[in-house]
Amino acid sequence: MSQKEPDSQIGYLHSEDTYPELIIECDSRSLCTDEAVGKDLWKKAKYQKRPSFNLVGETEDEQRTYGKSDIDRIWVAVDGMGGDYAPGTILEGCLRAVELLPLKIRFVAEPELFDLAVQELRLEDKLQRALSNGLIELIPSGISIAMSEEPTMVRRKCRASINIAMDLVRIGRATSMYSAGNSGAVMASAIFRLGRLVGIDRPAIGALFPTKDPNQQVLVLDVGANTDCKPSYLHQFALLGNIYSQYVLQVEQPRIGLINIGEEDCKGNELCLKTYPLLMAENRFNFVGNCEGRDVLSGNFDVVICDGFTGNVMLKFLESVGSVLLEVLRAELPRGRRGKVGSAFLQRNLVRIKKRLDHAEHGGALLLGINGISVIGHGSSKALSVVSALRLAYSAAHHNVMSDLKKLSTAIVN
Amino acid sequence: MSQKEPDSQIGYLHSEDTYPELIIECDSRSLCTDEAVGKDLWKKAKYQKRPSFNLVGETEDEQRTYGKSDIDRIWVAVDGMGGDYAPGTILEGCLRAVELLPLKIRFVAEPELFDLAVQELRLEDKLQRALSNGLIELIPSGISIAMSEEPTMVRRKCRASINIAMDLVRIGRATSMYSAGNSGAVMASAIFRLGRLVGIDRPAIGALFPTKDPNQQVLVLDVGANTDCKPSYLHQFALLGNIYSQYVLQVEQPRIGLINIGEEDCKGNELCLKTYPLLMAENRFNFVGNCEGRDVLSGNFDVVICDGFTGNVMLKFLESVGSVLLEVLRAELPRGRRGKVGSAFLQRNLVRIKKRLDHAEHGGALLLGINGISVIGHGSSKALSVVSALRLAYSAAHHNVMSDLKKLSTAIVN
Fold it and tell me: Where in the cell is it found (chains A, B) (predicted)?
């Protein structure tokens, strides 16, 4: 895993009580309203056991301590304050993830809220173990950005957890970051802190939807970053999705579709009508035409392009349909005497079906088009979703998708 | 059922071989390119047995022949040429519908294609029976409007089946019409032939989605008539949906939601941000706020408002999710020995689940905001969808929804 050199504008202070403090670069043009700057060091020493920010396998000591398999672990920065159930549930997911996946987590959170959540969920022992094993590190943050706040608040709340997690990626202290917070704010922070890829006007959020074929997924983008789009944005989404599908999902020649309300090229809203010829004229990917709502899960497309409003509605709708149908199953299957007997026989298979439909299993989306890997979770993420999103973060970092996306930049400008 | 007086501009010719011919009013400003005008009389006499266009229960003879229950049947005009499998499958659905529902059908189609389809599907006997019983009448039409054609073609192809079916409603020869054709063309024809309700800029297509609660449906509009919307359109959709939900679905105080990507009023695309305050300021209905994709099927809303692009994608997506999940069930349930035994016990319940999920069961949408009842089916409608759509046409006509919608007109302008 290639690591970037620390950025000269950002440095680390190992505070007296061994906690690192990130000096966060503030935008001089906007007023930093974060009153906690400088005051919110992680005061309590009870969790942290080791000095922070040794890259994995960096020191001989670390190599001796954690052994070969641990050296392969990669660092992921987690915005511990993002999401409706943060920070407790996010931490819970992280603790599970480090048991299941070859990664280590730099967990960024407001210390006081974090401590409360740890007590509430009784995670002290588990956390302590993970800290002692060096699988989790805690990084203090300032006041967080609320779900209802404007994305631009990332410029005022400089020490918000989103910003710190993003900076960890920027300076190479993490290979990727994950946040279940305000997705607009995650995107804004990514743009300000990591920057866009050359040739990309607006980054997009790409989500993987299941298809009829259990072995195939379809990448849908944008699912929420850009509510109002221009045709050129959709064109760029197609370029981004194409690369991602090729290099991370290993699809040789991804079939790209444009979400529309009819198959014919004369159908659609103004945006689609203007986008269609752009995609049609493109020879850098395989545009196969319009994709109606009913075709998204058909398995006939590998990448599906849409504006962020439509994609977001569709993503959330999909999740709910799964749970509605589970309720239908629960209500209908055991009806009657035969139903009761049959259902009893099917317990194990029903659990598997639930797992396949459950959105928590598909709980992360990638921010594409920025200069680093960011995974965005649902605001309502529970522990299982967090694990699933971290799996995605690992997978993207592991496949070194960034280097491919940077190649794309060159391709777009040329 | 109140019947309108025949429009003076439109009359009927009973052709020599007893087939009625509709003299279709053509827009003098647009050139009528339909070469078949005047030539496409239904030449073959083999199906038709009775003189056409006696309104149900209109003649004593009819009352004697068909008895009391038949008098209660209402006339529905069907665009026999609309849809991917027209006219055969549409006729098949109509033949089934007249057995199940208290209605009679005026079936409009191109005679030659109709004859071919009847032969192909071997519907001769069934059709003959329905004709002899006066449950179906055949009306010849000119060249149809293709799925890929511009909606404005309804002004050039004056004798297209959509136009004739619409005119039957206009002159009171049918209480409602059904088409599974080009939905843009259906809307255009409805606007030109029937006219909009006073105060309504753009009619909308409203579809009923199932919810978690088997006894509750949610009305989603628009699902395809208006791909690009203004805030005032969405405002009017809310007014239309409110009345429809109250009078046809019998919801006392419908809870109205606006499709958006977040619950907060600051979230959304430009259209939603501008629509929200309009709905908020309204006191003629109960606007309960933004409705995310995941909330549509929650049962927390009775009416959900969105632009026709988003609604159409969602509608088609919903249908496909049902069938994808059925495939998941089919694949996962019988796995293993216990699974096979259990599935065998569950056969009957599985059929019921399939029925509840199958989109063919939910196969029609209402065109709201025009001066008459039009039901639009999916382009891919099969016989079962046709029956389901005709049930909706019957239900709307039976509840006399038009008189309530006309009251709305007064409410909107006041």
Answer: Cytoplasm
**Candidate from A28-42, A329-343, B191-205 with smallest mean pLDDT:** A28-42
A342: which chain B residues are within 8 Å (Cβ-Cβ)? 341-346, 349
Distance of CA B397 to the CA centre of its chain: 12
Instruction: Give pLDDT tens digits for B1-60.
Output: 444 433 333 333 333 233 344 444 444 333 333 433 333 344 433 444 333 333 333 444
pLDDT at A236 over 90: yes
Q: For chain A, what percent of residues have pLDDT higher than 70? A: 79
Rounded to whole angstroms, how far apart are CA atoms B251 and B121? 42
Measured CA to CA, the distance from residue B230 to residue B253 in angstroms comes to 26
Cβ separation of A338 and B348 shorter than 8 Å? yes
DSSP A230-268: -HHHHHHHHHHHHHHHHHTS--SSPEEEEE-SSSSTT-S
Mean pLDDT of A205-227: 88
pLDDT tens track for B74-102: 999 999 999 899 999 999 999 999 999 99
Q: Which one-letter DSSP state was computed for residue A54?
A: P
If we measure between CA atoms, which residue out of B360, B396, B372, B366 comes closest to residue B85?
A: B360
Q: Which of A295, A316, A346 sits opposite B294 (nearest CB)?
A: A316
Whether B321 contacts chain A with CB within 8 A: yes
User: Are the Cβ atoms of A264 and B147 closer than 8 angstroms?
Assistant: yes
CB atoms inside a 10 Å sphere around CB B319: 21
Question: How many angstroms separate the CA atoms of A100 and A94, rounded?
Answer: 10
Cβ neighbourhood burial of B288 (10 Å; 0-12, 13-18, 19+): middle
In sequence order, what are the beta bridge partners of B370?
B196
- Give the amino acid at B352: R
| Residue A322, both tokens | 């799964």
* DSSP track, A160-185: -HHHHHHHHHHTTS-SEEEE-S-HHH
Closest CA to A372 of A99, A172, A136: A172
Q: How far, in Å, CA of A307 to CA of B384, rounded?
A: 34
Under DSSP, is residue B22 helix (H, G, I), strand (E, B) or coil?
Answer: strand
Closest-CA residue of B relative to A269 is: B227
Whether B316 and chain A come into contact, CB under 8 Å, resolves to: yes
Q: Which range is least confidently modeled, A53-62, B216-225, B314-323, B336-345? A: A53-62
Complete domains list, chain B, with CATH: 12-194 (3.40.50), 201-364 (3.40.718.10)
B-contacting residues in A 191-210 (Cβ below 8 Å): 210
Which one is predicted more confidently, A259 or B355?
A: A259
Question: Between helices A161-170 and A183-193, what is the axis angle to 10°?
Answer: 40
State the first-to-last Cα distance of chain A, in angstroms, to the nearest integer. 28
Nearest CA among A20, A29, A23, A19 for reference residue A10: A23
Contact A127, A91 (CB under 8 A): yes
Q: Please, what is the end-to-end C-alpha distance for chain B in angstroms? A: 28
| CA A341 from centroid of its chain's CA atoms | 42
Q: Does B310 touch chain A (CB under 8 A)?
A: yes
Q: How many residues would you count in chain B? A: 414
Distance CA A142, CA A48 (A): 19
- Summarised one tens digit per residue, pLDDT across range B207-249 is 988 888 778 889 999 998 899 999 999 999 999 999 888 877 8
Q: Look up tokens 């249908």; give the residue.
A: B319
Q: Would you state the structure tokens that stand for residue B96, as one six-digit string? A: 């089934």
Give A227's contacts in chain B (Cβ within 8 Å).
261, 268-270, 272
Query: Cβ(A363)–Cβ(A210) under 8 Å?
Result: no
Q: Given A321, A338, A348, which is nearest B321 (Cβ)?
A: A321
